[in-house]
Write a structure and sequence with these properties.
It contains seven helices and eleven strands. It is α/β, with parallel strands linked by helices and about 270 residues long. The chain has a single domain, classed as Vaccinia Virus protein VP39 (Rossmann fold). The strands form two sheets. It has a nine-stranded mixed beta sheet. Helix 2 crosses helix 3 and helix 5 crosses helix 6. The longest helix is centred in the last third of the chain and has 23 residues. The mean pLDDT is about 95. The protein binds S-adenosylmethionine. The site of S-adenosylmethionine has 19 residues, from helix 1 and strand 11.
């Protein structure tokens, strides 16, 4: 697929694995319309509000980065509508979008999806098996994240014919229908050996999403690439990938993960 974007934005342009450096809202406009099979997006959660949490037994600030700072209610909705609208344009009519979040952003995402012409298929709850404790002792321990899965609403009555690999999901669930509550640990240390990203998702979560809603050689896009978990899961399962991030540092980390993965897959082939 030909992407008409100035050279300076291409960080990696391999066959089937592209990383773009820049603002998702400008770059999405340059990607051909109706070309993407599936989008996974882990947008800013607006979590960085000066609070504290615990990591490895130490008190740490919950502040992640400037891109994660809180904003007004109106701005949160407008922000999510803007990038979701652009994602709809590049998504094929039968494609789907997955968006992750917590209560800080997910209700805005849900409303934005409906306003921008999507219909929600599932509300997945990721139950974290090892959440950090709530040290304020003034609330329940936060131990879940939500992932909304949506398809295009084409007209008032017609929705896109989305792909759901029902039998594969049943198979990996021991022969029983897979439910919408998924259990995974926080991102394990071994997945952070090339460096840290403050909100890196576990690979197992992205592998499940990709296996549930795409087929081999499909094109997957992540407008908020981060450390590239979506790209790594896509590469493992022979899906093509485009990732976008504002920060060069995160694309460098993704490149390290990608090179490490290719090396280990090559070594496996030699055995
Ligand atoms: C929540 S993190 C994604 C983490 C990712 N799922 C992973 O597993 O590593 C959001 C990412 O979006 C990037 N970002 C924020 N605003 C952006 C924008 N307007 N355009 C492109 N990237 C953006 C940030 O730099 C950050 O890396």
């Amino acid at each position: 697929m030909k992407i008409n974007i100035p050279k300076k934005h291409f960080y990696i342009k391999d066959e089937g694995f592209t990383l773009l450096l820049g603002d998702a809202c400008s770059l999405l406009k340059k990607i051909p319309k109706n070309s993407v099979d599936m989008i996974f997006a882990d947008p800013p959660y607006f979590l960085s509000n000066g609070g504290i949490s615990v990591q490895s037994g130490k008190m740490v600030s919950v502040n992640k980065a400037s891109w994660d700072m809180g904003m007004s209610t109106e701005k949160k909705l407008a922000y999510n509508r803007k990038w979701i609208k652009l994602c709809r344009e590049v998504l094929k009519d039968d494609g789907t979008i997955w968006i992750s979040g917590t209560f800080h952003n997910i209700y805005f995402v849900g409303v934005a999806l409906e306003l921008e012409g999507f219909s929600i298929i599932n509300n997945i709850t990721w139950r974290k098996t090892n959440p950090p404790p709530n040290i304020s002792t003034r609330a329940f321990t936060h131990s879940t994240e939500t992932v909304l899965w949506a398809r295009k609403q084409l007209t008032n009555t017609k929705k896109g014919k989305h792909l759901f690999n029902y039998q594969d999901m049943k198979y990996i669930n021991g022969g029983k229908q897979m439910k919408d509550v998924w259990e995974f640990s926080l991102t394990p240390k071994r997945e952070k050996k090339y460096g840290k990203h403050p909100t890196q998702k576990p690979l197992a979560l992205l592998e499940r999403i990709i296996l549930a809603s795409t087929k081999e050689n499909d094109l997957v896009l992540d407008p908020f690439n981060g450390s590239g978990t979506t790209g790594i899961a896509s590469y493992i399962h022979n899906r093509r990938y485009i990732g976008i991030d504002l920060e060069k540092e995160y694309l460098e980390l993704t490149e390290k993960r990608y090179n490490g993965l290719r090396e280990s897959m090559d070594n496996e082939k030699k055995l």
